[in-house]
Each structure stands twice: as C-alpha cells, then as structure tokens.
Known about the structure:
Layout: E1 10-20, E2 23-32, E3 36-41, E4 50-56, E5 62-73, E6 76-84, H1 86-106
Antiparallel strand pairs: 1-2, 1-4, 2-3, 3-6, 4-5, 5-6
Amino acid sequence: MGFKRKHARVDxxxxxxxxxxxxxxxxxxxxxxxxxxRLESRLFVKNGDVLRLGIELERGRSLSCELKVIHVxxxxxxxxxxxxxxxxxxxxTHILDDHVQSSFSRG
Length: 107
C-alpha cells in the first residue's frame, strides 16, 4: 500500500528566504500544500531543524511561516508547517485555491 498525502501539492516555483537562527539563505519554493513545503536551498539543514521561511508573492505581498524539516536530500528538503499566522494561512489558502481554479479552467 502506497503512502498517501493528506493535502495536494501545488507547484509554485517562487523565491523565498530560509532562516535558522542567525543564518539566512535564499531558497526556491518548489511546491506547497496546506501542511508543508518542498524547497531547494544551499542552507545546511538536518531532520528536526526548525526554520523560518519567507516567500515573496505577487503584487508585493509576502508569506511567512515556521517549518520543521522532515526530509533532506541536498539541495532539496521537505518541511512541515508548524506555525503560521491567520493572515498568512489565508494567503496560502488563496495560492492553493487559485491553482485549483486555473487547473480546472485549463482542462
């Protein structure tokens, strides 16, 4: 029996910044779901690390959340969203909803 994700992933391909303590590095957000993200970064991380992620969105908006690393295959990593403000949760929901809408309008 295969592994089933709780939430669908959405390819976003946007630029972000990871922060661990005083260390900071750019990253590329490959995909996102309601509960986690998949990133590409040169920041050295290991399973269990807690990171801060900032993502630049369209129209000068941004999204920020706290992540816990759950999978590392350098330079890619998967992380669970462990803390996100209500406003940023709403922005994330809009990203996911917009993707669903555009997927249906294309198909």
